[in-house]
Design goal:
Blueprint: H1 2-6, H2 19-42, H3 48-69, H4 79-104
């Protein structure tokens, strides 16, 4: 009991979440990506043949952005979740490629 009374320190959280500024920037970034997709379709800014790939690309950017900011995947201690998410993403991408070739070729 004597050893623990000498080193009484305030417990700090293991992970710093960056505060409200980080969340506000992430929220505004998500809104901007959504607005870009809406503007591309509503005002036909992007050529018709490129609209779908453009929106899908924005969706992937926003998904990764949200994973790293809102799900805290950029911080230490989330290695298992990060590996699980990327392994699942790999399985989905391989499955889509296999089914596309199975149906069309």
């Amino acid at each position: 009991m004597g050893a623990s009374t000498h080193n009484e320190e305030v417990r700090k959280p293991k992970v710093s979440h960056g505060g409200p500024k980080r969340h506000l920037v992430a929220f505004i970034g998500s809104l901007v990506l959504t607005a870009l997709a809406f503007i591309a379709v509503a005002f036909q800014v992007v050529p018709a043949a490129f609209t779908v790939p453009f929106i899908v690309g924005l969706a992937f950017v926003q998904a990764f952005f949200q994973l790293y900011v809102w799900m805290h995947m950029d911080q230490k201690g989330h290695e298992f979740a990060r590996i699980s998410i990327f392994a699942g993403l790999f399985v989905v991408v391989v499955s889509v490629i296999v089914f596309v070739f199975w149906v069309w070729i």
